[in-house]
Write a structure and sequence with these properties.
Structural class: mainly beta
Radius of gyration: 13 Å
Low-confidence stretches: none
Helix content: under 10%
Mean pLDDT: 91
Largest sheet: 7 strands, mixed
Length: 115
């Protein structure tokens, strides 16, 4: 059984930065390398959950257009940990951010960007 715990959310002013962490415990389900991915998603009030970024076992990454150039996803495979470095934050980045591996979601961490 896999458990994901996010941390690092908070209140930040526009233009500021935050670094989110996701710690996975247990055995991450592996069907093959291509699905052993760790990802970040977010859900703003009144909106559906949306994709933010994902990183594969080999380090390949993919980002939503809205965060390209501002957010960076990284991981440490040995520690089953992923991070999301968020720079130049905007009010529209306000949301609950969730970490995910195939079939599993964390509880989420709140990010609020406001002056």
């Amino acid at each position: 059984q896999v458990r994901l715990v996010e941390s690092g959310g908070g209140l930040v002013q526009p233009g500021g930065s935050l670094r989110l962490s996701c710690q996975a415990s247990g055995t991450i389900p592996i069907l093959d390398d291509s699905v052993n991915v760790m990802g970040w998603y977010r859900q703003a009030p009144g909106k559906e959950r949306e994709f933010v970024a994902v990183i594969a076992l080999d380090g390949a990454t993919s980002y939503a257009e809205s965060v390209k150039g501002r957010f960076t996803i990284s991981r440490n495979n040995a520690k089953n940990t992923a991070w999301l470095q968020m720079n130049n934050l905007k009010p529209e980045d306000t949301a609950v951010y969730y970490c995910s591996v195939p079939g599993v979601w964390g509880q989420g961490t709140q990010v609020t960007v406001s002056s």
